[in-house]
Amino acid sequence: MHKQKGAALIVVLALLVGAVVIGISSMQSSLVDERLAGNYRMASQAQMNAEKAASAAIADNEKPDGFFIPATWEEKEYTGAAEGALTTLLTKSDINAASWEKDLREIGYRTLHDSAVVTDNFNDTACDPGADASGAARRDKCFYFPMTIPDKDGADKPADYVVAVGAVLDDADNPHNPQASRIVLLEIKSSATNVHDGINPDIAAMFETYLMASKDNTRVDPAEKGGTGGPNLTLDGPLHMMDDDQDFKKSGNGVIKGENYEETRGDNGLPEGLNGKLPKFNLKEFEQTAKKDAEGNERPVTKKSGKSACRNLPQDLGGKTYICEDQQELKDVSFKNGTIVFKTQADFKGPTTLENVNIVAKGQITFTGDFASTNSKVGAKSEVEYNDDGERGTSRVTNSHFMTESNVQMNFGNDFVVDGGFFYANDESEIEFGDSSDAEPCGSAIGVGQSELYVGTIKRFKHCPDGTGESDPSVKSWR
Prior knowledge:
The chain is an alpha/beta fold. It has 2 domains: 40-189, no CATH class; 201-469, no CATH class. It is built from 6 helices and 26 strands. The strands form 3 sheets. The protein has a 19-stranded parallel β-sheet that branches. Strands 1-2-3-26 form a 4-stranded antiparallel β-sheet. Helix 2 (84-90) crosses helix 4. It starts with 6 loop residues before the first helix and ends with a strand.
């Protein structure tokens, strides 16, 4: 019995040691959890700071209509005076989509800040350090800057980005840890493509070069067709006629020469490669192009037969090609995003709206009544005609083309807006504007045979080779 004395003490000590070990382990686990929670909070706050900078980039460069417009980035100086690590990244010979984002994120907050601070449009004012609810100073920081990746996919296709960086800094103005800084990338997708994409390059060159052009008869009449001399008309753009011996016919009270007015004849000033002849519109070529999407892939095709078959096409064509086998009369229709091919004649009556649409007619095509066309192209074998019936609202043509192997006749009446109206006819191109004293229609009127312009009262008819000339980049991705 005496040998068993002290056993209780040993047991108690063992239990005590075990309890201490468990306590220490719990404390260590709690400390790790606290540290993880702190890191997570900092990472979350840094992410929010980066997103705040990205939002500020959009807000700082936003137009009233909602499009993201880098106000001073038109020359693509997205890297500006960047230096140090950022310049090293952007000049890497093997930069591509697979590597640059990883490399960018590994640069680190402070180094990236110091490299980008001299970049055009750098901004670090979006995050106000301020104080938290307890009054303690906060260390939230963020900044953004624009950047172009010179060869995103290894195919010589530069990609434009806004880089937004957020961080939570320590007292030495460094991120507490690698998790305390975050990057958000806004890829900027520009819609500022060539307004003449999808058109024969020679015809596009004519639109880019001339306000009016013809073979041997370019007529300007400051009076509505059939009327007598109206007020003076300002022409602001180049006029061309192939015949060296013919004069430009100017009726009415006269033509005022605008700042960009110029007269040329023959081969003088003719776009390169035309070999002394005005190009002719080819409907078959246009149809082949219209049936393909922007990437050159054939659009899905749906055929419709019957005289009323195409009256109920979906408003959004969904990038498809619809083929209407029979003559069609369409009333009060609106179409966008696709191609419609009319095997014969097509008559649009009442309000008609086209947006990003190709219209191909193997006969005549007419529009009557209110008409709105945006980024659309109309091509026909026979006449293309528009007549404003004067009964409703404003007719609008924006960055749209009307081309034919025959004649183009467009009568816009008195209530119209033409910002990038391009008219091309293998025979006669006849454009008529009514009385709208403040109107400044812009575009081109070209007829291989003859080009005629009749006006009531407008401010001027001007050349806009690139359409409205507006660039409307938008945020393509946010990551």
